[in-house]
């Protein structure tokens, strides 16, 4: 059966997108892992299904799978890409509401960029002054370092991710360098099991942890990932980080068809 696949990327974090409103795409771990394989398939950090949401006040539903083929928690860059995809499909215009695994999200366009609402952050665990753990829709370990350029992120990220710190569920691992008015980040992503060029929930976690650790003072911060620039806005109200927005590019790459086993 021929299936149309779209490819999007948000700051180099890339995704296969499927318009699955007819529910014809039958997701399996093996099929998704094969489609995401950069040699034997299309190649991507993850695969995202756009489906109808039964609750009619919502424009669509997002289902996210990591490139290992397993369904996972919130994907921030993927959330921004599905908004651009929904506009390409004519489902939405300038703004939308959609349901993801962690609940309801709002999103809107800011010129070429997509701004996505992220879940509130109530709890930030600090191991010491430079190391934190928080959940921004996906679990994130954040280490602040004086320099991240020469770091072996694949090796160091895998070591922390597979340590006894995070058990079977694991965590995404972020290495962050704070400059005067922006931050640099590199991320080892759970479920990709490698460094990705950007990680939206990771960029969000880094921004919130930096403010919590008093490394930044404003309520908006620019974050430079290898694949592109993102921005995070937030408020701190009654010790809860709220009104969090992840802002950045979400670009269409191509559309193609593949013969998929039914
Ligand atoms: N790999 C992550 C989910 C996707 C995160 C990333 N692609 C993003 O943009 O947030 C996890 O399993 O926790």
Automatic annotation (TrEMBL):
Annotated EC: 5.1.1.7
Catalytic activity: (2S,6S)-2,6-diaminopimelate = meso-2,6-diaminopimelate
Entry GO terms, CC: cytosol
Pathway: Amino-acid biosynthesis; L-lysine biosynthesis via DAP pathway; DL-2,6-diaminopimelate from LL-2,6-diaminopimelate: step 1/1
Subcellular location: Cytoplasm
GO BP term, pick one: lysine biosynthetic process via diaminopimelate
Domain of life according to the entry: Bacteria
Residue positions binding substrate: 13, 66, 76-77, 172, 189-190, 200-201
Residues carrying the site annotation Could be important to modulate the pK values of the two catalytic cysteine residues: 140, 189
Functional summary from the UniProt entry: Catalyzes the stereoinversion of LL-2,6-diaminopimelate (L,L-DAP) to meso-diaminopimelate (meso-DAP), a precursor of L-lysine and an essential component of the bacterial peptidoglycan.
PANTHER family: DIAMINOPIMELATE EPIMERASE, DIAMINOPIMELATE EPIMERASE, CHLOROPLASTIC
Similarity annotation: Belongs to the diaminopimelate epimerase family.
Protein name (record): Diaminopimelate epimerase
Species, as recorded: Psychroflexus salis
Gene from which this protein is expressed: dapF
């Amino acid at each position: 059966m021929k299936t149309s696949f779209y490819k999007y990327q948000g700051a180099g974090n890339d995704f296969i997108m499927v318009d699955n409103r007819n529910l014809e795409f039958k997701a399996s771990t093996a099929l998704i892992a094969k489609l995401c394989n950069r040699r034997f398939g299309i190649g991507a950090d993850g695969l995202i299904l756009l489906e109808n949401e039964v609750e009619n006040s919502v424009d669509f539903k997002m289902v996210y799978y990591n490139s290992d083929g397993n369904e996972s928690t919130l994907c921030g860059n993927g959330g921004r890409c599905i908004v651009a995809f929904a506009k390409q499909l004519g489902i939405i215009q300038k703004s939308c509401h959609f349901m993801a695994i962690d609940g309801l999200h709002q999103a809107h366009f800011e010129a070429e960029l997509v701004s996505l609402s992220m879940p509130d952050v109530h709890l930030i665990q600090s191991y010491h002054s430079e190391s934190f753990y928080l959940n921004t829709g996906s679990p994130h370990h954040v280490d602040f370092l004086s320099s991240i350029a020469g770091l072996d992120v694949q090796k160091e990220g895998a070591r922390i991710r597979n340590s006894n710190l995070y058990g079977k569920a694991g965590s995404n691992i972020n290495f962050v360098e704070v400059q005067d008015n922006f931050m640099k980040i590199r991320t080892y992503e759970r479920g990709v099991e490698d460094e990705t060029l950007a990680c939206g929930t990771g960029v969000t976690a880094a921004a919130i942890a930096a403010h919590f650790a008093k490394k930044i003072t404003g309520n908006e911060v620019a974050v430079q990932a290898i694949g592109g620039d993102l921005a995070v806005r937030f408020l701190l109200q009654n010790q809860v980080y709220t009104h969090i927005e992840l802002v950045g590019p979400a670009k269409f790459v191509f559309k193609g068809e593949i013969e998929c086993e039914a």
